[in-house]
Write a structure and sequence with these properties.
Elements (H helix, E strand, L loop, with lengths): L1 H24 L11 H4 E3 L7 E6 L2 E4 L7 H4 L4 H5 L1 H6 L8 E5 L5 H6 L7 E6 L2 H14 L4 E5 L12 E7 L8 H11 E13 L12 E2 L1 H9 L3 E7 L5 E8 L4
Parallel strand pairs: 4-5, 4-7, 5-6, 7-8, 8-9
Antiparallel strand pairs: 1-2, 2-3, 8-11, 10-11
Length: 253
């Protein structure tokens, strides 16, 4: 009888050891590729008052700054504090480029970029119709015709396929409610070899007086861009408080 128990017991031990070894060798989840939103987001009841309680790749998504914050985007001190003209100078634009300003807000960056694209244009993309109304009025006031407002949704930037040379997000990405889906749409809208430029307040620096959820570390940004197939090319530290990170859509072989 003891001999029979021994022969039953030994295979069970072997199976348990094999399963345990598998989990020890594979402690992390596989990298995100084409998966549904229900598997990549986590909702938590206890969360920051500055966030929406939704987490993506370990990061809580920040609340969106509504159109009532338009005055802050157009504040006279913005150039001194953030130096957005340096952002434009770092984009290495060509006269015929098509640039998508994602989360354009009032179009502050769009209208800085547009004069540099005499044969190109800026797609000013936002989910808030009120912001796009501000942009439309500013187009008339500034007499700038190559800024095209585009109404996006929370999970789709509504860009034409393979139409964009560069997609720019300035202090916007951390507020995307569906970052994975929006970035998929952006990648789809990029031409082969097209670039994505993200500007975010440095999450590594606790001395930067911006709410925690409205800052991002370079490591986190690179991880999230890699999840949609973008390749990191360069980080420029030319701004007082923000990273300027450049990614590229690979050309299919």
């Amino acid at each position: 009888m003891n001999q029979i128990r021994k022969f039953i017991f030994l295979p069970l031990v072997a199976i348990i050891l094999i399963i345990a070894g598998f989990w020890l060798l594979n402690p992390t989840k596989p990298e995100i590729t084409n998966v549904s939103s229900t598997t990549i987001y986590e909702q938590k009841v206890n969360h920051s008052p500055d966030g929406i309680g939704k987490f993506y790749m370990g990061r809580e998504i920040a609340k969106v700054m509504g159109h009532t914050g338009a005055g802050w985007l157009e504040r006279p001190s913005r150039e001194l504090e953030e130096q957005p003209s340096k952002i434009v100078g770092a984009l290495d634009l060509k006269p015929n480029d098509v640039v998508a300003d994602i989360g354009a807000g009032t179009g502050y960056l769009s209208f800085l970029i547009a004069p540099l694209l005499p044969q190109g244009k800026v797609l000013a993309v936002d989910i808030q119709p009120e912001m796009l109304d501000i942009i439309k009025n500013a187009k008339q006031d500034k007499k700038i015709n190559n800024v095209e407002p585009i109404l996006a949704t929370i999970n789709n930037p509504n860009l034409p396929d393979a139409s964009v040379d560069l997609a720019l997000m300035v202090d916007a990405y951390h507020e995307f409610e569906y970052p994975y889906e929006v970035m998929q749409g952006i990648v789809k809208g990029l031409k082969p070899g097209g670039r994505v430029v993200l500007v975010e307040y440095r999450g590594e620096n606790p001395l930067i007086m911006i709410k925690r959820l409205h800052k991002m570390t370079q490591q986190q940004v690179r991880k999230e861009m890699q999840a949609v197939g973008l390749v990191w090319r360069e980080t420029k530290n030319l701004l007082p408080q923000q990273h300027l990170m450049i990614f590229e859509k690979q050309v299919s072989s």
